[in-house]
Specification:
The chain has helices at 18-34, 37-67, 75-83, 95-107, 111-123, and strands spanning 144-145, 151-152, 163-165, 167-169, 173-176, 180-182, 185-187, 192-197, 205-207, 210-212, 223-226, 238-241, 244-246, 250-253, 258-261, 264-266, 277-281, 284-290, 293-296, 304-308, 318-330, 333-337, 342-353, 358-360, 369-377, 388-390. By secondary structure, it is α/β, with parallel strands linked by helices. The chain is globular and about 55 Å long.
């Protein structure tokens, strides 16, 4: 060891091999012959010592390498066990049957609700005609018989807050003033069942009422409700809404300031050869019929669903007549607006269902009929302009 060199302590005490010793001996002999022993031996001593150190220090490295089994792939099994086992778990192909089941469930609602919804749209209000909830919304057996006077005003005993609800009237009545009558029924064998009198504004209002004429044979041409001066009224304001009129010779006779909406008129009577119409208009102004269905069958005995005939027929002129969103069924002449003293007429969105013999609007357009829109037969034929439309082989009304 040269002076100042660090002492390397070998952790291994193994001896040099025989090959190494022979190699050293040969070197020593060579050096002795040349006379350079001290310097050479000194240098080679260092090399030998370094060789020895390298030799001895590599053994611990090998030893250290052998201790690496501590980091052996022991964790690898753990990783393997953690890794791929969840993959099968989410891959649980059980959702596939679940989605198949969902498809089956989704198919069930489609057929069921679809058909009724379409039918309901046609039968109920839709774009033309009356809704399905006309007439009473309470059982007829719950009605209280009316024992009050025949003329009813807002101050009549029994009237509460100008309202009468849930009564059964078995005699004709005269109504005047701003009064509301709802969920009530009028049944009698009489000439006129409800007569509107007075000049109050807005006048009487009827909602969800029924008028049953009992198919009377005692009186010819009885009328369900009227404000006409020909029937004891005076053209006073009134409104009838969501109501049902039936078993009558004539559903209603309307004069000035009368409004009928969302109402059904059907099962009309032709007893005693009466001149039966769904609605008659012979005089007045500002008359409205909207979202109403009138069934005027059988068509060979009932005159019209709606007839408007004014001054030239012995009555007075008619103006500002609005007939919209109505479904008219049958009648000899389904809709008749055919007098030269009628002006400012609006006819729009009318559905005509046969059989009927003709449709007549032979008054000038556009000088007297202001609006004419979407007047059609249910067989697809549109009546483009006001005219007398006769039912022929080409223009079938059946």
């Amino acid at each position: 060891r040269l002076e100042g060199e660090p002492i390397v302590k070998s952790k291994s005490r193994s001896m040099p091999s025989v090959g190494v010793l022979l190699f050293v001996a040969l070197i020593a002999v060579s050096c002795t012959t040349s006379g350079t022993v001290p310097e050479f031996s000194s240098r080679w001593s260092r090399h030998l010592r370094s060789f020895s150190v390298m030799r001895t220090t590599t053994v611990p490295q090998t030893t250290t390498t052998e201790t690496v089994p501590t980091t052996t792939a022991a964790p690898e099994p753990a990783v393997t066990s953690i890794t791929a086992k969840p993959a099968p778990a989410p891959t649980t192909a059980k959702p596939a049957p679940a989605s198949t089941t969902t498809t089956k469930l989704a198919l069930k609602p489609a057929p069921a609700p679809a058909a009724p919804a379409a039918v309901a749209a046609v039968v109920s209000s839709g774009s033309t005609g009356a809704p399905v909830d006309t007439g009473l919304t309470i059982p007829p057996s719950s009605l209280t018989p009316w024992t009050g006077p025949q003329t009813i005003t807002p101050t009549t005993p029994g009237v509460t807050n100008a309202t009468l609800t849930g009564y059964l009237f078995t005699n004709p009545v005269n109504i005047t003033g701003n009064i509301t009558i709802t969920n009530s029924k009028f049944v009698s064998d009489s000439w006129n069942h409800i007569i509107i009198q007075g000049t109050a504004t807005p006048g009487p209002t009827f909602t969800h009422i029924e008028i049953d004429g009992l198919n009377t044979t005692t009186h010819n041409d009885d009328i369900g409700i009227t404000n006409s001066t020909h029937d004891g009224g005076n053209g006073g304001n009134f409104t009838i809404d969501h109501s049902h009129l039936y078993h009558l010779n004539n559903g209603a006779r309307l004069d000035s300031n009368a409004t009928m909406t969302n109402t059904l008129i059907d099962n009309l009577s032709t007893a005693n050869g009466s001149h039966t119409d769904g609605i008659e208009i012979y005089c007045g102004n500002h008359i409205t019929i909207d979202h109403t269905t009138i069934n005027a069958t059988p068509s060979n005995t009932i005159n019209s669903a709606i007839i408007a005939s004014g001054g030239s027929n012995g009555f007075c002129p008619i103006s500002y007549l609005t007939i919209t969103n109505n479904h008219l069924i049958g009648g000899i002449g389904s809709l008749r607006v055919d007098d030269n003293q009628i002006s400012h007429v609006t006819i729009a969105n009318i559905l005509l269902t046969g059989p009927f013999l003709y449709f007549s609007t032979d008054i000038p357009y556009p000088t007297e009929i202001d609006t004419w829109t979407n007047v059609r037969l249910d067989n697809g034929i549109t009546i483009p302009t006001p005219q007398t439309f006769g039912c022929t082989t080409t223009n079938s009304c059946n």
